[in-house]
Every structure is written in C-alpha cells, then in structure tokens.
Amino acid sequence: MTLLAAVAVGLAVAFVSIAAYVTVRQQMYQNLDDSLRDRATQAAQQRQLTDQAVLQAVSAEALGLSDILLGVYTADGQQLGAKKSTLPPMEGPELAVAEQQDIVSTRTVGASMEGDHYRVVAVPAQYCPQVSRECYPDEYIPSALVVAQSLKPIDRTLHNMGIVLWAVGLLGVIGAAIAGNAIAVSGLRPLQRLSGAAEHVARTSELKPIPVSGSDEISRLAMSFNAMLAALARSQDRQRRLIGDAGHELRTPLTSIRTNLDLLAQADKRGGLRPEDRQQLLDDVRAQMDELTTLIGDLTELARDTPQVRNAELLELSNVVEDALIKVRRRAPNLEWDVKLAPFPVWGDERLLGRAVTNLLDNAAKYSVPEDAATRSDGAPAGRVRVHLQDGVLQVTDSGPGIAEADLPHVFERFYRSSEARSRPGSGLGLAIVKHAAEQHGGMIYARNAPGAGAQFTLWLPHAATQTR
C-alpha cells in the first residue's frame, strides 16, 4: 500500500508537472512571438529602422534593448545593421521573407543557455539605401526587418520552474509514502490481530473469539472468523460428548459380554454347563454382540460431521421408504401398517436415507407394541403404525403412549433416553441419526404427540429440482 500510494502520487505529480511546464513554456513563447512580430511590423511600417542613416546611427543597445538584435536582410543578400553592433542571425528563412514580401518567419536559433539562444522574427520591409536624403518610391529595396531577442530570461524562468516542480513532486511522493504507510499500518492492524488469533489457535487449540469493532470489511472478516471458531468449538464439543457418551455406552455391552464369557470359562473348568444353559448364555453373548455392532455403526455414522452428503444421487423417496418397510415388517409381524406413499424425487445418499427411515419405523414399531403383547392370544394386531409420504413429507405415527412433554425437546439428542424407554432395548442413537441425515440432505425432522394416537415424527426433504448435487 505504501508503494502504491507513492507511485500513484508520483505519476499524478509527474503528469501535472509536465502539463504545467509545457503549458507555461508554450504560453511564454507565444507571448514573445506576438510581441516581437507586433514591434517589428510597426517598425517596418514606419520605415525608421529600415533607413540606412538611422539604422547605422542607432543601435539596439542605445535604445536600452541590450537583449535584442536588429538587422536588415535585403533581397539581394546584403546584411545590414548598426555599426559596432552584433547582427541577428540571418539565413535562408529571413532571405525568403525579403524575397517574397508576403510571409513572416519565426524560429529559434541556438539551444543552450550558455551560448547564443535567440528567438528570431523576420517581417517584410522596404530598405532605403540613401544616406543624405529620402528615397523615392522606386528606390526602395525589398528586404526583411530581422529582430532577435535573447531567450535566456525565459530559459532561466523555465529552469527555476522545473526545479520547483521537481522539489514539490518529490515532497509529495515522500508525503504520500508516509501517509500510505501510516494508513496501511492502521488498516492492517485488525488483520494482524486475526493472524495472531489464528496462530494462537493453531498453537494452543484455544477457540476464543477476538474482539470486533466497526463495520468495515475487516470487521466482517473478523466476525466470520469468530463464527468459524464458534462452529469449530461446537464441533469439538459434539465430538467430546460423543466420545464420552460412546465410552459409557460401549462399556455396558462389553462388560456384559466379558462377564458371560468368564462364566462360560469357569463353568468349563468345573465340568461345563447343561446344554440349555450353555445355549442361553451363547445366545445372550450373540445378542450383546449384535447390540455392540449396531452401536458401533451408529457411532461411526454420527462421527461423520460433514455439512452435507458428498456422493448424492437422484433417488425416489417412496422406494427408500418401501425398502425400509420390508425390513421392519419382517421384525414386527404383529403390527398393523397403514401405508400411503406418493412418488417424490430427492438428491441424496440412499444408504443414509434408508437407515434414517428404518430407524423411524423401528422406533414406531418398538413403541407400538405394548410390553404385555406376548401374553395376548386373541390374534389381534398388537399395535398400529401409520406411514404417509406426500410432497416430500414423511409422517410416521405409532400407537404407543406418546412422548412426555419434558422429553420432546431432547428426543433427537445423542444417547438421550426417556424414563419410559430405558426398559426397552436400544442405544439412544437412532433418532439422532435421523436428525443427522435430515440436516445433511437440507431437510428437517420434528416430533409431537398426535391427537388420539401416540408419537408422530415428521421428516421433510426438499424436492430434487430445488437441490444442488
């Protein structure tokens, strides 16, 4: 920024200085030319300086014009002037004026302030060669009155002007560089704080926001940086809670499996268990292994803290729901299913959406079956699950007892289980995975208690035409 300010001001000063110098120089030369032509023309018309007697007797120095040279250049090539006076430069252009008598010559002779440097003007004139009397009209000789004025005063003025312009320009560039550096230091100070904050985060992993003041671009950048830190802190907090909860949840099945295996090993040392007891113990271990496998899969799914699915494809949501229904119906054959599905295309991950819908249906099936369903013998369905899909809104309603009002805000939290759910199998991650899948696909999920029924979960997903891949 310092260099940019210095270069910008330097170029501006250079352009202004050149324009001013050229303008003043042209104007001074124009004024000098006009003055010389007017005086020479008047002198030629009065025929005083073109009279031989007057010309030889009166010099420019005698008139107090020491910087002016006077002379007459006749058409036959004679160069005449006052005695003991320097003649002005008289060459081809001045001879042409004497011969043609209808043109005016203006030129500069010499190019150095140290040497002869004149502005030469030649105007048509009539020269009288007689000394003792006036000339008759036919005695006048066509000639040119030549007036040359020294350019030293003008050159000196222009030289001084150039020095002043250079000095002012240099001071302007230096001032602009100092001001640019001050502005750069002041303007980049918030960026230095941002850089320091980023380095502090990288060095210590502390996600403390930085103070923000003002409303300019750097302030908005600082606010974005603070928002990024907040999002990173939330992500770390979720990961810490996930690890803590996972350690707690994994410990229970692992402890149970280890206990059963220890019992089996001790029984083998004492001669073994009865076949039915041994089979029951092995079945218990297998069930706990299945629970552990499901829990690990759920934890792996939730650990993918990505904002949206990466490998999206065009899916028919009704087909995803039908596939999930086939699986859940097989596990809950004693339920009545009210299913109405309308086609609805979405962009998404078929595996993740299928798992989310399966979790919703499993949850509804689990709570639609009363705990005493095994004792019923009338053959009637143990419960009823309503599954409706219309315009991308999937509603799953069970016939269970519903959700307590105090538990409704927490049903989608990881490992959260209400007091009624703790007596049933599960890890408390199923609905968290449903919310995770909905958010990754740009949708939403919410729960409520349906009038005259149990809990109702509503999953909404956007249409494929409004989604980006």
UniProtKB/TrEMBL annotation:
PANTHER family registered for this protein in UniProt: SENSOR HISTIDINE KINASE TRCS, SENSOR HISTIDINE KINASE YKOH
InterPro entries: HAMP_dom, HATPase_C_sf, HATPase_dom, His_kinase_dom, HisK_dim/P_dom, HisK_dim/P_sf, Sig_transdc_His_kin-like_C, TCS_sensor_his_kinase
Localization (cell): Cell membrane
Domain HAMP, first and last residues per copy: 185-237
CDD domains per the UniProt record, alphabetical: HAMP, HATPase, HisKA
Name of the protein: histidine kinase
Organism: Kribbella sandramycini
Documented EC number(s): 2.7.13.3
Listed SMART domains: HAMP, HATPase_c, HisKA
Chain segments annotated as transmembrane: 163-185
GO cellular component term, pick one: plasma membrane
Reactions this protein catalyses: ATP + protein L-histidine = ADP + protein N-phospho-L-histidine
Domain Histidine kinase: 245-465
Sorted UniProt keywords: Kinase, Membrane, Phosphoprotein, Transferase, Transmembrane, Transmembrane helix, Two-component regulatory system
GO molecular function: phosphorelay sensor kinase activity
